[in-house]
Amino acid sequence: MENPPHRTVVIKLDVTSDAAESLHQTKEQFLYCANQTSDWAWRHDDYCVTSKNTAEKALYADLKDETDLTANLVQKGIRRAIEAVTHGVERLKNGEKTSQPYFQSWSVVFDKRSATFNADHATLSTVDGRVKAEYVVPPEAEREETPFGRYYDTDEWDASHATLQYDEMADEFYLHVTTKRVSDADSERQEAAHEDDGSENGVVLGVDLNVNGAFAVTSTGVFIGSTDHLTHRRNEFEERRGRLQQVGTRSAHLTIQSIGDRFSEWSLDWLHNRANELIEEAERSGVDGIIFENLKHIRKSISNAAKFQQWAVAKFIELVEYKVEDTDLFVDTVNPAYTSQRCSQCGFVHEDNRSDKSFECLKCDYEVNADYNAAKNIANRYCAYIHRGQKSRGGWATSQLALKSGTLNVNGEFNATPHIEG
Questions:
Q1: Based on CB atoms within 10 Å of each CB, which residue in 12, 65, 95, 337 is the most buried?
Q2: Where are the domain boundaries for CATH 3.30.420 in the chain?
Q3: What is the 3-state secondary structure (H, E, C) of 233-276?
Q4: Rounded CA gap, 101 and 86, in Å?
Q5: 249 CA to centre of own chain
Q6: Is 3.30.420 the CATH number for 203-227+266-416?
Q7: Which H or E element spans position 206?
Q8: Are 144 and 137 contacting, i.e. CB atoms less than 8 angstroms apart?
Q9: Do 217 and 339 touch, CB atoms closer than 8 A?
C-alpha cells in the first residue's frame, strides 16, 4: 500500500526560559482568540456561524487590537474555533448531543507564515517577536530509521504546518510537524529551477518604510505612497480639532467626533490601498515573499516620530500580512541593523554613506536614493540568512533579491528578467 500523503513528526524542543515565557503568553492569547470566536459563533443570532470569512470580517480587527499576536496567528485562532463550531453543527444535525466548543488545552497552530522549519531548529512567531527553538533529535547515525529522519530530514517530504504543545508535568515543548510528500511534479519543477538559475526556487522583495518622503520603497525601485501627504492630512485634522476644542460647545464636540471618525476611515483606507499596491508589485515582479524590517527595530528607529506615524507603519505591515493570506506570498522580517548605512553595491558600511534621502558610498562612489538602497539591503540580508543554511518561510534553501531589472542571487550572480520593469 502506498504511503499516505501526510505524516506527523513529533519533535522535542529546547528553548530558553525567555522564549518559553513568550510561547506561554502566545498560547494564552491564541486560545483567547479561539474562545472569543466560539462565544460569538455558537448560536449567534439563533444559529451557528460556520463561515471562516464571515467570522474573520466580524472579529479580526478587534482581536488584533486586543492581542499582541501576528495577523496570521489571530486568523489561525479564529479558524480553529470555526472548525470546532462546524463539527458541533454536524453533530447536532445527526441528532447527537454537543455543546459550545471551549479551548483550554495547551496548543498553538503555526504555518509557514508564522514559523520557519529549518534542519535543526524552528523559529516561531510569538507575542514578543520570533523565537528560536532548537530541535532535540536522535544522533545522525541513528536518525534514518526514526520518523524525524524518514519524514522531516529528507527532500522527499516538506513541512507544511505544525501544532506546538506543552507537557506541563515534564516542562517540555513539542512541535507536532505535519509534512507532505513532495510530488514528482514538484521535484521536477525544483530541479528545473535549480538548473536555470543556480538556486532553488525563491525570490524576495525588500521593503523600506519611512516617516517622511515615500511611505514604502521596494528593492525593485518602486516608490509607494507619500508619508508627507499622509502626515499633512493628519496635521489638517489636528489643527481643525484644536480650533473646535477652543470653541468648547457641544456642537463643536460632536463635530470633532465626526471628523475624527472620517479621518480614521480615510487613513485606514489609504493604508489598505498602499498595501494593495505593494502586493500588486510583488505579484508583478514574480517574487515569493515580502521582507520588512523587524517591527521592534522600526519602532525603535522611529521612536521620535509622531505616534500616528508609528501606528501607520505597524498597521501597514499588519494589513500586508493579512492580505497575503489569499495569495501565494509570505511576509517575513529581518534585523535592519546598518541597512541604511550599508552600500548595496559593494557592502561597505559607514554612517556617512547616507545623507537624508541621498546615498553615496565612500568606497565605491555608488550613488542612489537612500531608501531604495535600504530596501535592497533588507532583501539582501534575508538572502544571506537563507544562504547560511536557514530555510525560508517558503521552504526553499536559497533565495534571490528582486531588483529593477533582474534578480541577484546570494552568490552575487545577476540574472536579467524582462518581466521586471527597468
A1: 12
A2: 203-227+266-416
A3: HHHHHHHHHHHHHHHCCHHHHHHHHHHHHHHHHHHHHHHHHHHH
A4: 10
A5: 46
A6: yes
A7: strand 203-209
A8: no
A9: no
Question: Grid cell 505616534 — which residue?
Answer: 307
- Report whether 173 contacts 23 (CB < 8 A): yes
pLDDT tens per residue, the chain (422 residues)? 444 568 899 999 999 999 999 999 999 999 999 999 999 999 766 688 999 888 988 999 899 999 999 888 998 999 999 999 999 998 888 888 888 999 999 999 998 878 888 888 999 999 988 899 999 988 888 888 899 998 898 888 888 889 999 999 999 999 999 988 876 434 443 444 333 333 344 688 999 998 788 899 999 888 999 988 888 888 887 777 676 667 667 776 776 676 667 778 888 889 999 999 999 988 888 888 899 987 665 555 554 556 788 888 888 998 898 888 777 788 888 887 888 899 988 889 999 989 888 889 999 988 888 998 999 999 888 877 654 444 444 444 444 555 554 444 434 444 434 333 22
Q: 201: which 3 cell numbers? A: 526556487
What is the chain's percent helix, strand, coil content, to nearest 5? 45, 25, 30
Q: Which amino acid is at 96?
A: E
**Angle at the Cα of 304 (from 303 to 310), degrees rounded to 5?**
55
All three cell numbers of 416, joined, read 536579467
The β-bridge relationship of strands 400-402 and 121-126 is: unpaired
* Rounded Cα gap, residues 208 and 376, in angstroms: 9
Instruction: Quickly tell me which residue has 498553538 as its cell.
Output: 108
Per-residue DSSP letter, 349: B
